[in-house]
Amino acid sequence: MKETLNQLIELQEIDCRLYEINELKGDLPEKVLDQENELNVYKNENETKDARVQEIEHTSRKHNAEVEDFNVKLTKYKDQLYLVTSNKEYDALNTEIDSMKKAISESETIILTEEEEKNTLNEAIKSNSNKIETVTLTLEEDKSELKTALSKTQAEEKKLIKNRTGLVKGIDSRYLSTYERLMGARDGAGMVSMTKSACGSCYTKLPPQMIIEVKENSKIISCPSCSIFLFWDGIEE
Fold first, then answer.
1. How many CA atoms, within 13 angstroms, populate the side-chain half-sphere of residue 237?
2. Nearest-angstrom CA–CA distance, 63 and 109
């Protein structure tokens, strides 16, 4: 049991330092990740909008060609009106003329609607491009700052993680799982040293017999109030 206690004390020392290192990084890792995700959103939006713009331009060329063709036919039908010799032929030509006018109107409406959509899309693309430029500048600054922060502690952090991985393999899983649960709930602290005859976490005054047992550092004792593991670092009050 004493061996497990010593292992947990060593583990807590490692975790405390890892926690300090993460604190040095601040919120930069999360900020960088959020900015990268934001950039991807803007870029994906622009790709989708640009594809739609290309599609509109393709269909607009098609409809413009149709309008040109319809106008040629319309002129032809109008010229033929002067050559008809019967009311039946006249009515038939007028029907074709009306049909051409309707087709031209429909195509021009589609062209106008799609042109408005294209303008809206291009404005959105431009807006996103400005945002991409702004976020990219901020991202590069934050990446540089994060790189500087990491360069100071990266080697130490790597060594600590390696030592931690080796250490946890030899700790009784029952105590390890409880320690890690406590650590997750208490900002990186799974066990604390008793201080001034009280729990170093919640500062609850400990019973006299428990104080004696904690000072012996021979077994794992939990605070009766907050359940955190207790040990004594040897510093007198």
1. 9
2. 10
Report how many helices (DSSP H) and strands (DSSP E) the chain contains, helices first: 5, 3
Separation of alpha carbons 2 and 85, rounded Å: 118
Number of Cα atoms under 13 Å in the Cβ half of residue 185: 13
Rounded to a whole number of angstroms, the distance between the first and last alpha carbons of the chain is: 26
Domains, the chain, in order of start with CATH, read 14-170 (1.10.287.1490), 175-231 (no CATH)
Q: Which amino acid is at 145?
A: E
133-162 residue pLDDT tens = 999 999 999 999 888 878 878 888 889 999
Q: How many CB atoms lie within 10 A of CB 125?
A: 19
Contact by Cβ (8 Å): 115, 60: yes
Q: Which amino acid is located at 25 in the chain?
A: K
Say yes or no to pLDDT of 237 above 60: no
The model carries a pTM of 0.56
Q: Which backbone phi and psi does 188 adopt, to 5 degrees? A: 85, 10
Give the three-class secondary structure for 235.
coil
pLDDT at 74 over 80: yes
For 133-162, give the DSSP string: HHHHHHHHHHHHHHHHHHHHHHHHHHHHHH
Strand partners, 192: 230
Sign, CA dihedral 181-182-184-190, equals negative
Q: What are phi and psi of 231, to 5 degrees?
A: -150, 180
